[in-house]
Amino acid sequence: MQIVNANDLPKEDAASPIFTGPEVTRQSLTPDSQDYNANMINFGKGVRNKLHTHTSDQLLIVMSGTGTVATEQETQTVTVGDVIFIPAGERHWHGATKDSQFSHIALTRAGSQLVQIEE
């Protein structure tokens, strides 16, 4: 068994072309898992990821701030305690609102691939 507190984990720079801005960090929650990718993703104000899909289901658990989660059909505002289930293959994006930083835990199956749709 392993117990970690996300507040104690180092924040790694996660800036990449999938994000709309550079103010994104990642904290690995399960670096030794062979079954799950679990990371705390921290977005600066107004930063989001671009429209994308995953080859496995994705679960997001909002830990702080206010964010937006959207598909091509709907856009929802989410906040602390909200849990979002995104089925494999669903086109979606998520990130911080313009007025709030935002953090969520992102959980996918190990080996799941992210496919960026929006440039």
Superfamily at the CATH H level? Answer: Jelly Rolls
For the largest beta-sheet, the strand count, sense and barrel status come to:
8 strands, antiparallel
Give the end-to-end Cα distance, rounded to a whole number of Å. 41 Å
The radius of gyration computed from the alpha-carbon positions, rounded to a whole number of angstroms, is: 13 Å
Q: What's the CATH class label?
A: Mainly Beta
What would you note in describing this structure?
By secondary structure, the protein is mostly beta strands. It is 0% helix and 48% strand. The protein has strands at residues 12-13, 24-28, 36-43, 52-54, 58-71, 75-79, 83-86, 92-96, 102-109, 114-116. The model has no long low-confidence stretch (mean pLDDT 96).
Structural key phrases:
single chain, 119 residues, mainly beta, Jelly Rolls, 8-stranded antiparallel sheet, two-stranded antiparallel sheet, globular
Kindly summarize this structure in a few lines.
It is built from no helices and 10 strands. It is mainly β and 119 residues long.
Architecture blueprint of SSEs:
Elements: E1 12-13, E2 24-28, E3 36-43, E4 52-54, E5 58-71, E6 75-79, E7 83-86, E8 92-96, E9 102-109, E10 114-116
Antiparallel strand pairs: 1-2, 2-3, 3-9, 4-10, 5-6, 5-7, 5-8, 5-9
